[in-house]
Fold:
Amino acid sequence: MIGDEILSGRTQDKNVAQVALWLNMQGIRLTEVRVVADDMELIGRAVVELKAGNDYLFTTGGIGPTHDDITVDAIARALDVEVVIHPKARKALEDYYTTRGGLTDARLRMARVPDGAELIENRMSGAPGIRMGNIFILAGVPHIAGLMLEALSNQLEGGRPMLSRTIGCWVAESEVADLLREVEAANAGSQIGSYPFFQTGKVGANFVVRSIDAGTVDSCIAAIGSGLILLGYEPVADGILLPAS
Amino acid sequence: MIGDEILSGRTQDKNVAQVALWLNMQGIRLTEVRVVADDMELIGRAVVELKAGNDYLFTTGGIGPTHDDITVDAIARALDVEVVIHPKARKALEDYYTTRGGLTDARLRMARVPDGAELIENRMSGAPGIRMGNIFILAGVPHIAGLMLEALSNQLEGGRPMLSRTIGCWVAESEVADLLREVEAANAGSQIGSYPFFQTGKVGANFVVRSIDAGTVDSCIAAIGSGLILLGYEPVADGILLPAS
Structure:
């Protein structure tokens, strides 16, 4: 994610959750997120580091027409390639702006790509996303980033999606720490997360079981559920009891 | 930020904006955010890298009583110190759990700190945050993280807070790209961000001016405002026209 607006706290980010959920549907695991400032060097450094250690890298933000949109320049410099005008992007922008005052220099900025890049369709505003090798450069406005993800759906090589089920309970998570650890240990390939909440003086927690295997998820949910009942609690499976915040 | 729940998309993060806004009030600039998985090595690597390049490092998440809470262990290992029970934290937990079933082994986990650490008060649930040198280890539950930040308010050395004002307008940002660039160039120490939005077929943008100098902010807002009026638009200063998403 690229953008001073996130780091200043002005804008509540929505792209992390959006990209994470989309990746999961593609069977691709999100391993790390970084939010960096609108700064050539900081963007470049993050891109080089993250590109090296991962199959795919997605960026959001900084590809608009104004002076603070420097993502394309930063990535091109980090990859040591030129920035060029992509002819198809220019055409898409020309078409889009025909009835909207024509293609100005500022608008033409949105056709600039690292040399060698392909485009990612944006059927909303003409300005495309960009694919450069394993780097996917998306818009920062969440619903446009969402359209670009939609255009990429089922295009990337992924594994099996991570499945999850949640079981919630009005219980202090410290009461069930042993139960959770034992269930996770007994079910290879499972991950169990415990997410507490507090409301009107009561404590509760949602326990989220994740695995690529549906049977493993179901076994864990069943084991946590019966464990909670044995301890005298009333768990609620498959309904998040309360938002985790 | 430490947590599989953010990377899976299950939980919409709220701590980035919360920490960012609080830091700004302390006159401290947030330069980077990373979200990493509940994994000893990944947490450790991020902590070492971020601690080295910054005055302060804040973590959220992974300090509860359950098996997936490994932040303290990961940070201690990264710093090459032992994990110890902090006597004051043990006392706070004993007091808190006196009327809540007593201090179990799982609950005592929340008194574990890297050797040499101090505590950050948490007047809500007894389990404190942790300060280890320039690393501040906070809870993941947003309102508890908020209480810990409150306890740290005015404790850290900061500079002058970054000031900002916003001017919104129903205009395509590409129409005013030159204006924004010129105003920023003419006002040393200013940063101008352009955040477009789309609603019911209309395009608009909020222009956010940031500077540590109030006069600079005001000059930029005035210059953008009169520039927009000259172009035939009707800007709205000091009211965000619409949410940026």
Q: What stands out?
A: Chain B has two domains: 4-152, 163-237. The first strand of chain B starts at residue 32 and ends at 36. Chain B touches chain A through 76 residues (CB under 8 Å).
